[in-house]
Write a structure and sequence with these properties.
Elements: H1 5-32, H2 39-71
Helix pairs in contact: 1-2
Length: 79
């Protein structure tokens, strides 16, 4: 199954939701973790790295799925 315009719409909506959620977390996490002292900023940095790694993995999967539809190549992990 290849992508349709509805899929692109949903991906854009999900990206906006993820971006808004990340912005809210970036604001609230320092306040929530301030009682950890010096470890608080380190935890925020680790969570930021994990978030961006997840976003990049999703983009890679989406890109390979799109390439599979355009070129007629079907990758085993792109559904």
């Amino acid at each position: 199954m290849c992508f349709s315009w509805g899929v692109f719409e949903q991906v854009l909506v999900q990206l906006v939701i993820m971006g808004a959620g990340f912005a809210i977390l970036k604001i609230l996490l320092p306040f929530a973790l301030q009682h950890f002292g010096a470890a608080g900023p380190i935890i925020v940095t680790i969570l930021t790295i994990i978030f961006w790694a997840f976003v990049i993995i999703v983009i890679i999967k989406f890109s390979f799925g799109l390439l599979g539809c355009l070129g007629g190549i079907h990758f085993p992990f792109a559904k």
